[in-house]
Amino acid sequence: MAFTVAIDGPAAAGKGTISAAVARHFGFRHLDTGLLYRATGARVLNGQDAAEAARTLEPEDIQPTDLRTAEVSEAASRVAAIPEVRAALVAFQRRFARLGDGAVLDGRDIGTVICPEAEVKLFVTASARTRAARRHAELADGTSLEEVLADVERRDARDRGRVDSPLRPASDAVTIDTSTLSAEEAIARAIATIAPIWANR
Ligand code: CDP
Asked: Ligand 1 pocket, 159 CB below 6 A?
């Protein structure tokens, strides 16, 4: 029986950490859907047409190496506003969500567009400053905190403002604000939300 956990939220909110921990705890498969947009953005930076890049993605394109740079983040958020790019990536994500017993997908539109029937929907957020500080520590590549904050805010505005699949919480999503939570506390909250629904499936 399919069981899907949809985890959405703005840039660097901690979705990846929570998703990986939830997947480990419950034995679910995990798809970081941001990697699909990052891989598409990386191909566009190499000169490929965006829709063509999304249509021809291969598993080796979404290996996380080199996909976390600020340049790729920005390219990902630009291609993510193109409806043909999103359309090309829908079927793969839906198959992943509903195939087999237990899947976690994290992104921007999982609970609203990719899998509105998800058994659990979480919206993970935090203040822009907190998110930027965390991403700044993670990147440690010489980019200033102010630059990271500007990047995060620019991507958020684009993700929230686009016409196709904008970032927003599903009406039945449980919000976890991680601004004042440690990673362990945020993970514990996510697990506590999912556990009773998983047990009663
Ligand atoms: O890790 P971070 O939260 O910074 O970003 P990500 O989840 O890897 O996503 C990179 C970009 O892909 C985002 O800024 C979005 O524009 C886009 N994205 C999207 O539009 N829809 C998704 N389901 C996942 C990512």
From this structure: yes
Task: Give the Cα separation of 116 and 6 in Å (integer).
Answer: 9
Domain carrying residue 69: 3-199
Q: What is the pTM of this model?
A: 0.96
- Number of structural domains, the chain? 1
Phi, psi of 120, rounded to the nearest 5 degrees = -135, 135
pLDDT tens digit string along 59-84? 899 987 889 888 999 999 999 999 99
CA of 75 to the centre of ligand 1 (A): 10
Tell me, what CATH number does 132's domain have?
A: 3.40.50.300
Q: How confident is the model over 194-201, as a mean pLDDT?
A: 97
Centre of ligand 1 to C-alpha 199, Å, is 30
- What does the DSSP 8-state code read for residue 113? I
Query: What is the CA(109)–ligand 1 centre distance, in A?
Result: 10
